[in-house]
Write a structure and sequence with these properties.
The protein is an all-alpha fold. It contains 13 helices and no strands. Helices cover about 80% and strands about 0% of the residues. The radius of gyration is 22 Å and the shape is globular. About 30% of the residues are buried.
Amino acid sequence: MPDKADVLGAVLATIGFLGSGVYFFLVPGSGSASSGGPGVVGFLILTLPIYPYAAYWTLSIRHALAVPLYKRQALGIGFVILALWGTLGAFVVLPSGQPSPLVAFESFLAFYLLFIVLFYWIDASVLTSRRSDPLLRDTLYWSRIRIPLWVVIITTTLIPFTLLGYIGITSDTTIFNQLGAGTFGGPAISFALNVIINFPVVIPILGIVYLPIIAIRSKWDRSLRRHFEWFALAPLALLWIFFGPFSGTNSLAGDASNGLVLAIAGYALYRSARSLAPINRLQAVESETISVADVGIS
């Protein structure tokens, strides 16, 4: 029998998708011409039902869990849900014309925040998977490289923020234009800055390499395996939105496709979090324990 919370999650995702479809039909041209996605109102109609619901369940599950590693895993998926929702919302809200230093700073903030949160979740996932592995295998020497990776990722994140913050304080549009044109400081410095700015691309590459391995090694832990399986739909959804056939277009088919994918991603993230600890089963176990205790006392 389907769980009531799962059915409600599916209903909320469906309501968001159908509601945004009605909005697009009633308000022609309401899509985002820059990304092919929904406008601000359409984005809110589409995502408000399912994404806060998924985040709520994540916090509830984290509170119910007793194992610290699983609590960290639940916290990580909660951060991913909020960061993904906020980042997509930022790209919808921010103007798509000629970027200003403020818009560039906000775009970088949303972009880098999502990647840092993804890295936190990958880190938590590899550590949790190792604890669930009977052989306690260190997947591709993760315990040795995770701290250096954290240092490099934080450093390469602070450098562009420092430059953009300096530009914003001094209103030096010359430096901003040079950064945009790739001529700041000469070829060597521009190349180094380009590498630093694009370094977060390493994070999804790490996910592509590590997540299939830890998903296979978590076969002894059914909940953790289902957690990874449901989560896999979220990055596939992002790939479809940003690199799919409707990327960069503004059409009814593109809006419908991206809206459906966003709704599915929201539900998949909810199920990914829910897989860690189905609350209804925990409540059933607690009820049985109380009943046994009452019998023993009487």
